[in-house]
């Protein structure tokens, strides 16, 4: 186990365990809508931020501003949204709300003359509710950031079919949004929030085990008969869905440690290792896998050893967040497709720690 694994709390934790961060969700209204937006709101003054994009079909906004060579040092919020590239418009609603609060990069002598820095990334969920045009816009983004602002520090984060995870699908399974956190022996907190909407699968088709659980102690193997039935039902559901497998997994990994922008970019990059452990295959041409990294700087300044622990914890937390997203998801069966949830496919299973027959 890594040092991060050894320090995993008994409870799963959440991104909001990183002091100062708040999370809010909003859904697109309507019976034929299956999409939404999630906002990670930074504390006043913003957070040091970076990004690492590895999927072949990303949809992003303001990611160039996060290059350590460029001017902007901090961001005010990060938007994770459904609706493919259309959904990136939700960030404009977040910007408008932040401007009203006087929060952003000051560009003039008047304190109200600010430009909020709001990077965003989107997942493809168009038509999954049955209405191709039911996608997030500025109003959805505003509703999500207002929901985040209403929460208290350290508030739990809703998981599953909510926010940007409302229409998420992973390997034919209903995906969703999940979160986790790790507290290191140094007291530094590392958290992750993932919208799991992948072409690849979070489940090993040979065993039924979550890929993300293989490295966290002895995984629970489902009964072979239950797993076989689950795989059959999943294949049947995939066969009924007409939409193409255009996906993407997007995430935010954060720490309260005081990181430079270059260190934050390293954290975003190593966090992709956790995604690669939890979803296979990953980073495909039909994916737009993007990980943002945030540093609130309210914790200690890390030395080289603790910085390595932070990098390892970022990957571990993201892997755990992926598993939690799929476990929390609920089945959807409607005009846009049939997307069974893991909890329903394996609901009659009694987990076993016995290794399967080879």
Order of helices and strands: HEEEEEEHEEEHEEEEHEHEHEEH
Strand order of the largest sheet: 5-3-15-14-13-12
* Strand content bin: 15-25%
Distance between the termini: 25 Å
Biggest sheet descriptor:
6 strands, mixed
Rg to the nearest angstrom?
Answer: 19 Å
Structural class: alpha+beta
H/I helix tally: 7
Please report the total strand number as a whole number: 17
Shape: globular
Low-confidence stretches: 1-10, 349-358
Please state the average pLDDT score: 89
What is the helix content? 25-40%
Descriptive account of the structure:
The protein contains 7 helices and 17 strands. It has a 6-stranded mixed sheet. Strands 1-2-6-9-4 form a 5-stranded mixed sheet, with helices on one face. By secondary structure, it is an alpha+beta fold.
Search tags:
6-stranded mixed beta sheet; disordered C terminus; alpha+beta; 26% helix; disordered N terminus; globular; 358 residues; 7 helices
Précis, in short:
The chain is α+β, with helices and mostly antiparallel strands and 358 residues long. The chain is 26% helix and 20% strand.
Summarize the topology.
Elements: H1 3-6, E1 22-27, E2 36-41, E3 47-53, E4 60-61, E5 74-75, E6 77-81, H2 90-100, E7 105-106, E8 114-115, E9 120-122, H3 138-150, E10 169-170, E11 173-174, E12 176-183, E13 189-196, H4 224-240, E14 250-255, H5 261-278, E15 290-295, H6 304-328, E16 332-334, E17 337-339, H7 342-345
Parallel strand pairs: 6-9, 14-15
Antiparallel strand pairs: 1-2, 2-6, 3-5, 3-15, 4-9, 7-8, 10-11, 12-13, 13-14, 16-17
Helix pairs in contact: 2-3, 5-6
């Amino acid at each position: 186990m890594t040092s991060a694994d050894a320090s995993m709390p008994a409870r799963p934790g959440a991104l909001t365990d990183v002091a100062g961060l708040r999370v809010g969700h909003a859904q697109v209204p309507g019976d034929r809508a299956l999409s939404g937006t999630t906002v990670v709101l930074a504390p006043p003054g913003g957070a040091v931020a970076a990004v690492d994009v590895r999927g072949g079909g990303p949809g992003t906004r303001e990611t160039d501003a996060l290059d350590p060579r460029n001017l902007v040092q901090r961001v005010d919020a990060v938007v994770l949204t459904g609706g493919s590239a259309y959904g990136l418009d939700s960030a404009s609603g977040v910007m408008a709300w932040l401007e009203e609060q006087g929060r952003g990069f000051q560009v003039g002598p008047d304190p109200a003359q600010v430009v909020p820095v709001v990077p965003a990334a989107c997942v493809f969920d168009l038509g999954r509710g049955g209405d191709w045009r039911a996608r997030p816009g500025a109003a959805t983004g505003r509703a999500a950031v207002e929901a985040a602002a209403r929460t208290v520090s350290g508030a739990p984060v809703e998981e599953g079919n909510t926010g940007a995870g409302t229409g998420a699908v992973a390997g034919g399974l209903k995906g969703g949004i999940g979160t986790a956190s790790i507290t290191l022996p140094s007291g530094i907190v590392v958290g992750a929030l993932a919208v799991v909407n992948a072409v690849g699968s979070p489940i090993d088709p040979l065993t039924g085990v979550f890929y993300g659980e293989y490295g966290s102690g002895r995984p629970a193997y489902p009964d072979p008969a239950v797993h076989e039935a689950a795989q059959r039902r999943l294949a049947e559901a995939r066969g009924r869905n007409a939409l193409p497998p255009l996906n993407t997994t997007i995430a935010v990994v954060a720490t309260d440690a005081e990181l430079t922008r270059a260190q934050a970019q390293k954290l975003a990059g190593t966090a992709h290792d956790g995604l690669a452990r939890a979803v296979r295959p990953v980073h495909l041409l039909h994916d737009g896998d993007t990980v943002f990294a945030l540093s609130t700087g309210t914790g200690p300044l890390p030395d080289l050893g603790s910085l390595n622990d932070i990098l390892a914890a970022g990957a571990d937390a993201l892997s755990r967040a992926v598993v939690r997203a799929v476990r929390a998801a609920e089945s959807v069966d409607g005009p846009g497709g049939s997307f069974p949830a893991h909890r329903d496919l394996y609901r009659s299973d009694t987990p076993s720690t016995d290794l399967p027959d080879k």
